[in-house]
């Protein structure tokens, strides 16, 4: 692969000639010479450089868009060839929803890395809809998502089942009560995830099923912030039991089920049907399905 192109991608990634030089084990002047040679080759200025930052020009943005794909494909080819006769190795791009990615994935990766130390996970955590797009477009080797999944061009397998419960703060009138009817929650402020989140999809569906309209609503883009907001007394929320185990154990939050309407959702593992599966991907998926999830 063109050395200059790889150096260019590294400079953009690190936003610094100095950090790129350290990553590539080159001198800073050598990196500068390679970028000058690349600009001469294309006949265009690719980078705006000051003492504080490196920014792409318009020509640089065009080259980076294509160069990044070339570098990714080159690294993928290296991994696939190595896979033919060796142990799992190389980069593994994992996309995950916030709920799973923030509360389950770190523990899974710790065990996986211990078993396969030469695999380098690259983690992206976003809401479920965006992770589905990444898996479909092969920006992620595997996506872990919840809620409704579009199966077009995708191989989708159920990974685990999660229960959602209403969480209330210590001292709340419902703290310590095992289950209540929705009428008991009619006057509460509900703290919700943003649209596109798997948790939000399940919450909206539950409200429709129960013909329930919250008195007032607040939205946050993070489960951790929602938990803190509930603890602070701003309202109640519907939350995954995956994410509140510690909070329940130390009585930082209390869980309340809705009478007669248990709320469950499935967690799915999704990959592109046309994707060639490396040994690293195969072993990670196998490890995912062998993991014991809290029930």
Describe the structure.
The chain is of the alpha/beta class. The protein has three domains: about 5-85, Winged helix-like DNA-binding domain superfamily/Winged helix DNA-binding domain (Arc Repressor Mutant, subunit A), CATH 1.10.10; about 90-160 and about 265-290, 3-Layer(aba) Sandwich (D-Maltodextrin-Binding Protein, domain 2); about 160-265, Periplasmic binding protein-like II (D-Maltodextrin-Binding Protein, domain 2, 3-Layer(aba) Sandwich). The protein has eleven helices and twelve strands. The strands form three sheets. Strands 3, 4, 5, 6, 7, 10, 11 and 12 form an eight-stranded mixed sheet that branches. A two-stranded antiparallel ribbon has the order 1-2. Strands 8-9 form a two-stranded parallel sheet. Strand 8, helix 8 and strand 9 (about 215-220) form a beta-alpha-beta unit. Helix 1 packs across helix 2 (about 15-25). The longest helix has 26 residues, at about 60-85. The model has no long low-confidence stretch (mean pLDDT about 90).
Q: SSE layout and pairings?
A:
Layout: H1 3-14, H2 17-24, H3 28-42, E1 47-49, E2 54-56, H4 58-83, E3 90-96, H5 98-103, H6 105-115, E4 119-125, H7 128-136, E5 142-146, E6 154-168, E7 179-180, E8 189-193, H8 198-209, E9 216-220, H9 223-231, E10 237-240, H10 245-249, E11 254-258, E12 263-272, H11 279-290
Parallel strand pairs: 3-4, 3-5, 7-11, 8-9
Antiparallel strand pairs: 1-2, 5-12, 6-10, 6-11, 6-12
Helix pairs in contact: 1-2, 1-3, 1-4, 2-3
């Amino acid at each position: 692969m063109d050395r200059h192109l790889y150096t260019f991608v590294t400079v953009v990634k690190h936003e610094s000639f100095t950090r790129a030089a350290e990553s590539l084990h080159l001198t800073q002047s050598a990196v500068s010479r390679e970028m000058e040679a690349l600009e001469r080759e294309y006949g265009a200025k690719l980078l705006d450089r000051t003492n504080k930052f490196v920014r792409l020009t318009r020509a640089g943005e065009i080259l980076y868009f294509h160069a990044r794909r070339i570098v990714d494909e080159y690294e993928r080819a290296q991994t696939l060839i190595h896979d033919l006769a060796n142990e799992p190795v190389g980069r593994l791009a994992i996309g995950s929803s916030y709920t799973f990615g923030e509360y389950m994935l770190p523990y899974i990766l710790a065990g996986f890395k211990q078993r396969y130390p030469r695999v380098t996970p690259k983690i992206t955590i976003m809401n479920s809809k965006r992770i589905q797009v990444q898996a479909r477009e092969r920006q992620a080797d595997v996506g872990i998502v919840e809620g409704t999944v579009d199966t077009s061009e995708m191989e989708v397998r159920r990974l685990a089942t999660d229960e959602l419960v209403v969480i209330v703060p210590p001292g709340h009138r419902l703290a310590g009560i095992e289950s209540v009817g929705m009428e008991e929650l009619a006057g509460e402020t509900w703290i919700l995830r943003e649209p596109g989140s798997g948790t939000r999809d399940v919450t909206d569906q539950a409200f429709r099923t129960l013909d329930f309209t919250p008195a007032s609503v607040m939205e946050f883009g993070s489960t951790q912030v929602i938990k803190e907001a509930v603890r602070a007394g701003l309202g109640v929320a519907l939350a995954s039991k995956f994410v509140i185990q510690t909070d329940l154990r130390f009585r930082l939050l209390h869980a309340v089920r809705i009478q007669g309407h248990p709320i469950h959702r499935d967690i799915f593992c999704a990959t592109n049907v046309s994707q060639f599966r490396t040994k690293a991907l195969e072993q990670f998926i196998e490890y995912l399905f062998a993991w014991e999830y809290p029930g």
